[in-house]
């Protein structure tokens, strides 16, 4: 049985990964460590409260003794680090917490993985560490890092630490760098769920600048499948870019949402652009496609339809996470068992 410590497993991508593994892999124990900050929602894990292969622990990845205790008591072999502060806007207004979680937290996990001689450390990173692209070209694993926000700088710092632990102490690792994710359970500070929520409530949809910034969109399930392939088939010490092959302008995505929900484009409101807003990201995923035989299975149109339909069917979840009403109930469900 694989014995994996998943950090940040109550967040958006982490919870999608937990759900996928528990549904599809029978011989795997997941110990889920999450501090349940505002975007870590136990409601994302509803239905798995009593799953025999899932153990939830509320705690901070910066707590070294706790991390070591978890590794010892559950005989952990692998750490997959999803835990991160991840919103660019908040990193501009309050960068300190991004350094504490994304850098110091990763360092704490790395020290525990080194000292306990774990079999693998997988760092979930982002294409934002590469900086911004012009109208052409794509990021490859050899692209130099050029982070342009406190968020991306913190993630690039963490990536460097992971590589340093591999080089200095021989810690087996992988780093994955993904493009923009979307799908179920995403906290509505991010663009797609924010626009869906606002449109459902006939509120204005704020679009930065001209809205022509380009992002490569990756459905969360496809991302999670790629991470599993990296764990099971990836070569230690390698970086893998994971992209959705779906470059879209932000304004195009917003209009798709409005059309799907039958809402007028008059709800769009262009606002002052974000400080240092990167103009274009695009991932070259040829390496993971050729070496691990992974490829995205969900087209943008299909994924967006699934995502919008999920939010329509789960408006109670949406209301709860926005208000925070879920927290006490689900903490009782998980932590007082």
Please supply descriptive tags for the structure shown above.
3-stranded mixed beta sheet, Rossmann fold, alpha/beta, 337 residues, 18% strand, 7-stranded parallel beta sheet, 43% helix, single chain
Description:
Helix 2 packs across helix 4. The strands form three sheets. This protein has a seven-stranded parallel sheet, with helices on both faces. Strands 7-9-11 form a three-stranded mixed sheet. The protein has a two-stranded parallel ribbon with strand order 8-12. 43% of the residues lie in helices and 18% in strands. The protein is globular and about 55 Å long. The protein contains twelve helices and twelve strands. It has helices at 12-24, 64-74, 88-93, 96-115, 150-169, 191-200, 220-233, 250-260, 286-291, 300-313, 315-323, 326-335, and strands at residues 2-7, 28-34, 54-58, 78-81, 120-126, 173-178, 180-182, 205-208, 214-219, 238-242, 247-249, 268-271. The chain has a domain at 2-183 and 220-243 and 278-297 and 325-332: NAD(P)-binding Rossmann-like Domain (Rossmann fold). 43% of the residues are buried. It has 337 residues and is of the alpha/beta class. Helix 5 links the parallel strand 5 and strand 6. Mean pLDDT is 92; it is low at 326-337.
